[in-house]
Structures are given as structure tokens and as C-alpha cells.
Amino acid sequence: MSATGYVLEYHLVNYRRTWRSSALSSFVLPLLTMLGFGVGVGAYVRGGIGGVPYLDWMVPGLIASTAVQTAIGESSWPVFSHFEWLRSYWAQAAAPLRVGNIVGGHLAFAMVRVLTSVLAFLLVTTAFGTMHSWWALTVPAIGALVGLAVAAPTFAYAASIHSDSYLAILFRLGLVPMSLFSGVFFPVESLPVALRAVAYALPLWHGVDLTRAATLGVAPAWSIPGHLVYLAAWSVAGWLLARHRFARRLVE
Amino acid sequence: MNDEPLIHARGLVKRFEGFTAVDGIDVDVRRGEAFGFLGPNGAGKSSTMRMIGCVSPPSGGVLRILGLDPLRDGPAIRAKLGVCPQLDNLDTELTVRENLTTYARFFGISRKVARRRADELIEFVQLTERADSKVEPLSGGMKRRLTIARALVNEPEIVLLDEPTTGLDPQARHLVWERLFRLKQQGVTLVLTTHYMDEAEQLCDRLVVMDGGKIVAEGSPRALIERYSSREVVELRFTAESQESFADKLTGIGERVEVLPDRILLYVSNGDDAVAEVHRRALSPASVLARRSSLEDVFLHLTGRTLVD
User: What ipTM describes this predicted complex?
Assistant: First the structure.
């Protein structure tokens, strides 16, 4: 097993202590949102969107959004706390691990959390009959990619701050607007042009568009390679930045 | 068995933006030795330890650990080091045992061996009764012992201890000393920083005194005391406002007279003779204390009495 694997194992052992509460919250919240918006609001959306019922249209957006919420949740406070409160990254740096192992192992754990959340949600929404295509099987991979595209830069951000009030800023000015304006609840085409540009620039919309194409079995608004390359670019840039920020703190 | 030093530094420098923390030090630590870095806060002890621990690249000079270059072979060196940092960084949500087993995995130790070693080390640091309780509610002394146990989980060749007993109460401190002394007897090479003189005298075979990033003295505790202090020290307290006025009357007693705001120190070879001489000169101090000279006298002599923050 590789050094990165040992770090992942460490985070899994830690997770054994808290998995019940965290699994519940990362699962119950999207479920309630689905019922509240999809079934409740959906009843007022006559004729659905693009020819499919509102619930079926919204569910893939919610899955991508869940991936992003879980990814940012796992890479904000946890990373901050491993630096500022537990100081456990320094303990890891004293062992024969490289900075890349420390970042990679923790990032891999965040991806485990993203994947399990997406899978659980996918199963439940399938039971609601919202999956129209076998392409839905690619949804976990899409979720992991969009999760990585936000988790990696969030790792870099959380490694660069010394006060957790900056995390609140990230959630209020980053995560919440991104979740509202990325085509999860309504098509981005109904946004003013300026806001639409913001939605295109952020990772979530690309994940939403891909996931929706997969679950409904339709063509995405953008080219598939375009989406994949764009999300990969966020992931790679985030990873390089995160490794750099970690090295600045741990090896000085 | 080669006699190459385990740690070898020549002209070692660590510069941070705007200041030089370590300013060209030469150090050799041999196998089985207990070696100490002594110095006031900001002397460069911790920066030196971090360079030896291969988590801080040197800015200049030569550094070899176990014959390897930290810049190139960091992970290979760290695999053979045990590190007990100044601030505990245990996993407070995990149990005592899990702290050891998860850390052992970072060294590629199998789960089975990790469990066996955890059991042995928990016994060694006397935490058997708390083996399966969470770390968070443990006392400072227990946490420090667990940190030391964690530093031993890979059976290291060198154990680095950065102020191992700072902040512990006397009982806890003595227990830690006793365990470290046991390690030393087992032949483990110990490198520690401290500003407790009694700690250095108890544990170190050899030590260097650092001040302002430089080494200002080097030797065994005994040799340093002989060289920079006298065999004994007599402390005199006079009731008068100023101790200064008595200093003249004491000249010629012993090797050196030091006047402090609240007392006068006489550095002498024989305390009792010196006290007799003080009385013969018809001086009557309010209190007299003749004691063995300690590393503290050396330390204060070398690094000064000004408070360093």
C-alpha cells in the first residue's frame, strides 16, 4: 500500500467515530430538498422543463449539488482543523510521508465521502423513478470529478487562512450562490447574462449539465469533452495550489 | 559498527524572511548519546530541531543525518526518526491505542505489528489503564507520555524531543525523565531541547548552549560547570536597600562576585570557607545559602540575565 493510502486509512479510522451523524446530515438534507422543491414546488411547474417532469429535471442538479456540498464540507473545516486545532498535519509531516501524500490521502478521503453521498442519493432518487437512462451509471464518476474540482481549491484555501471566519465567507459568498445559480433549481438561461457567465465559470454548472444529460439521457448544453476538460483543469490547478500551500505551512 | 556521527552539521544556517534563526552551527551527535540543545527562547533550538527532523530545509551549510542528505532523502531519514514536538499534536478524538496504531501505519508497519508495538509502548509509558479511552480528557502528563510512545512506534534510531517536559507538573516531569532515562539505557540516541537546567543535567551526556542562533558553549554538564562557573556558589542577601554597597567588602572572596538586585552571588571553590570569610569580615547578611554550582549558573552567565521574550 502506498503512503497516500496510509493517510486515507488514517482519515477512515477517524471517520469511524463520527460517521453516523455526518452521513445522516449529508444525506437527509438533499432528501428533504428533493421532497420540498421537487414534489412541492414541482406541483406548480406545469408541463415540467424541457419536456420532463420538474422533479426528474431537478434531481440530477441536486445530485451534482450534493457532490459539491459534501466536497466543500469535507475540505473546509476538516482541513482548517487539522492545521489549526489538531495540528495533526505536522505529526504526519514528521513521518516518512511527503506533502503530496498528506494532501492526496486527505483529498482521497473527501472523495470517498463524495462518492458515498452521491451513491446513496442516486439509489433513493432511482426509487422515485427519476432516472430515464442507463447513462445514470456514470453519475458517481461525474460526482467525483465535480467534487474534486471544488475540493482541491478548497484545500488550498483552507490551508491559507488562520481564522475560521474566512470559511464562513467561503460558504456565504461561494457555495450558497453557486448552489443557487448553477442550474440546479432552474435553467441558467433564465439568469441575466452577467450571472450566467458566473455560473459557466464555476465548476458546479458543468457537473449539473453532465449529470442531467446522464440521468435524462439527453445531450448536454456543452460538449462532453469540454465539460470534462474544464473540471479537470479546476482539479489540477487546485491540486497544485493545495500542495504548494501545504508545503508552505508544513515544510518551512 | 561505524563511529560516523548520526547527526553531523557544519556551518548550518536557517534563515527566515528578515532574520537568521540559526547562524552557522557545528554539531556532531554520536550513537547512543543523549545530546541537549540549551538556550533561552528564540535561541534557534527549535529551528535546529526542525532541520534535523527533515521538515525544514537548511538555508546553508552541511547537514547529514544517518549519513544521508535531508534535502534528498527526507522520507528515508524520517523513517528512522522519532519526533516528540513541543506542542502535542495527538488525535484527540481517537483512543490512546488508535493514536499509536494509525501513526505506525505511516511508517508502513503492518497492522499486526502495529497492534503489538502499541501494547508494548502503552505499557512502557504506563498508560495501560487508559489504553482504550479517548485522548481528549487525558492529563497533560499522560498526553506527553503518549506523544513519546508515538515517537517510538517505528523503533527509531534517533529520538528528537523538543522541550519534552515544558508545562508538566513535577510528578509528571519526573515520570517522563525516568522513561527517557530508560530509553537512554537501552541505547537509543536522544536529542532534546530544553531550558530546564535540571533536565539537561539529568539527561544529557553532552550539550551545547545556544544564544542568538550561535553555539556559545559545548561540553558535558560537569565540564561546562567547571569551565564557566565555580564548584560552589554562595548566595548572600543583605537587608539594606542596595546590595551594591556590600560588593566592595566582598572582593577577593572566590573567583567572581556577581551583584543582583536582590542578592549577591559569590563563585567559590569551597562554600563553607567563603561563608567563614564573610563572617570574619564582620558582614552579617540576612540569609546565606551555600550550594553546588549548577548548569543554571553557566546558562545565565553565558546568555545573560535579560529577559528574552
Answer: 0.90
